[in-house]
Amino acid sequence: MEYKMTTVNLTVHKESCMDMKSIRDNARREFKGICRVCARCDGHSCRGEVPGMGGAGTGSSFIANINALDSYFFNMRTIHNVKTADTAAELFGIRLSAPVLAAPMTGISYNCGGAISEKDFIHAVITGSRAAGTLGMSGDGADPAMYCDGITAIKTNGGMGIPVIKPRAQDEIIKLIKIAEDAGAPAVGMDIDGAGLVTMGLKGQPVSPKTPDELSELVSSTKLPFILKGIMTVDEAELAIHAGVKGIVVSNHGGRVFDFTPGAADVLPDIADMAKGRTTILVDGGARTGQDVLKYLALGADAVLIGRPMITGVFGGGTDGAAFVLDKIKTELAQAMLLTGCGSISDISERILFP
Predict the structure, then answer these.
(1) Between the CA of residue 135 and those of 19, 78, 225, 305, what are the distances in Å?
(2) CB-based contacts of 299: which residues, under 8 Å, 6+ apart?
């Protein structure tokens, strides 16, 4: 399939003199204890708090995402001809300011204390992502209105957003895919790792794993690139590619559905070795900074999803806060690229990592 190139070229207005400390302080007040906005968001303080912002059970899967990233260090290089680092990237025919996207998130009303509505949250995420020159993903949840809120935000932003659907019944997913097409979205996805969300079933919205044939049916139902989120093994990445998906997201759902999984950075290299060049590889889990993004890119990802920092950005600064977080990560990424001798995203490889 050929993708039409679109360039996202909007700037963030800086009149508000926003800074990360103000965003974090504001967010801490709005969360009212649901999220502590820890100096280091590593899953220890909120372990087991689901609903809430933590990881499932012992919180080990959330913590594993952080620890897996922390296990990598950089080879710093400063004797080279790279004077500036270009973070621009292309994803599904869209030119982005950086290969960094907002992850799909719903349940803000009951996971984050209710200070911001689902509708206002996803509008801020999608609009802020576009203002930062990239894309936000919208999610799906036990209340069907959550998906509709995301679609509305994407429509309002000229189709600049990617809806992600829970692994519902086949006919329901296909209906929601058609809504994504009508919204002008450049791609559509399914977070198959949401199959373990018991709250969906309790609220009359059952979800379940999918067979390879079912995946193929969903891929064939649309002309949009189909992204499958929740891949954590090489064999399932292979199954997804055979089903025809145009993108996979290596993800354990932020550690929120299943205890005792490895971190995304633990499994990404082997998956990338098999899948690189055959499908677009995205990754989600524990990325907090531009340095984290660079690690994931060096391990084989084509783009990185940002989750919890976006929630802090929206709660602490609304749409401008969302854009500020993404801009900050892009700036950190550029600096890290400069200090590892990478002039462009295509220059990034595992050679920049130690050991």
Answers:
(1) 22, 32, 15, 10
(2) 72, 265, 268, 269, 272, 283, 350, 353
Which residue range forms the structural domain that includes residue 287?
A: 19-354
pTM: 0.94
Interior/surface letters 228-265, b for 16+ CB within 10 angstroms, e for the rest:
bbbbbeeebbebbbebebbbbbbbbbbbbbbbebbbbb
Residue 14 lies in a domain: no
| CA separation for the pair 79, 66 (Å, rounded) | 31
Total domains, the chain = 1
Residue 71 belongs to domain with CATH number: 3.20.20.70
Q: Kindly state the tokens that stand for 259.
A: 């205890």
Return the ∠ at Cα 310 (arms to 318 and 90), rounded to 5°.
110
Q: Considering only CA atoms, which of 87, 40, 6, 34 is closest in space to residue 288?
A: 40
pLDDT in tens, 104-117: 999 998 899 889 99
% of the chain surpassing 90 pLDDT: 90
CA distance 182 to 173: 14
What are the tens digits of pLDDT across the range 302-311?
Answer: 999 999 999 9
- Asked if residues 124 and 321 have their Cβ atoms less than 8 Å apart, the reply is yes
